[in-house]
Fold this sequence. Notes:
It is built from 8 helices and 7 strands, in the order E-H-E-H-E-H-E-H-E-H-E-H-H-H-E. By secondary structure, it is α/β, with parallel strands linked by helices. It has a single domain, classed as 3-Layer(aba) Sandwich (Rossmann fold), CATH 3.40.50.720. The protein has a 7-stranded parallel β-sheet with strand order 3-2-1-4-5-6-7, with helices on both faces. Helix 4 links the parallel strand 4 and strand 5. It is globular, with a radius of gyration of 17 Å. The chain starts with 14 loop residues before the first strand and ends in an 8-residue tail after the last strand. NADP nicotinamide-adenine-dinucleotide phosphate binds next to helix 1. GO terms for molecular function: oxidoreductase activity, acting on the CH-OH group of donors, NAD or NADP as acceptor.
Amino acid sequence: MEKGRKMGRRFEGKVAIITASTQGIGFSIAQRLGLEGASLVISSRRQRNVDEAVKKLKAQGIEVLGLVCHVSNAQQRKDLIEQTVQKYGKIDVVVSNAAANPSVDAILDTQESTLDKLWEINVKTSILLLQDVSRHLTKGSSIVFISSIGAYQPPPAMAMYGVTKTALLGLTKALATEMAPHTRVNCVAPGTVPTHFASFITDNDTIRNSIIEKTPLKRLGTPEDMAAATVFLASDEASYITGETIVVAGGMTSRL
Ligand code: NAP
């Protein structure tokens, strides 16, 4: 967050779970929710990353609980929810942010085990998490999925990953209906953001420059850009919005 920039306190008294939130976009979303007053539960696969992220957030005066949770691990997902409820008593916001992109193969060359992993991490575990979370969600609660601009036109080198992100657009629509009127369900589709996840693209000068060239706003996205949209959708300012996806991609138009 820019130093000196004024920020609201839209999440005072709210409790937010953000998966895969110890770095990159997930961390930025957590930070923004925390700076706006939310009590946070952050998590990822590695204890060291969790500890570091908790330290950074606490140094900013943010109330945060950090847990190890590999989204594929059923017990860790249950612990995440139980410990959230034990410590904070309720859940107002869930941001489902974890994803894997284990292959650059064409879809017809992708091994079954890789197809399973993509479906499991990028789609199925989001559903399983919400199945367990739903009974703790407050009235007026909000879910945000993190999809991708690649959901609209899956790029050849990440085609199956893109297809799992397309599934999240459908999941957003379906769950928005299923969970209304108690809970809103929305989605953010980021363009390219130079995080660890995207480093295989953004560390390559030629590819990075060609993406910037094709982007009307002539830059890559930042985790803060993604956090701003996510936090808006999670907030009461979006209280009449459900089932929608906001593309945050500098004007990139490769959409269905
Ligand atoms: P990132 O900077 O690499 O951060 C990934 C985070 O997820 C880390 O905190 C990592 O910590 C955690 N993580 C990874 N696998 C996990 C798992 N199985 N269970 C729990 N935590 C896990 O990635 P990012 O770029 O912010 O990506 C976040 C989301 O944005 C993803 O859904 C991605 O598809 C989407 N997205 C990114 C871009 C982009 O250009 N960066 C574009 C479109 C969409 P540990 O290593 O400790 O687990």
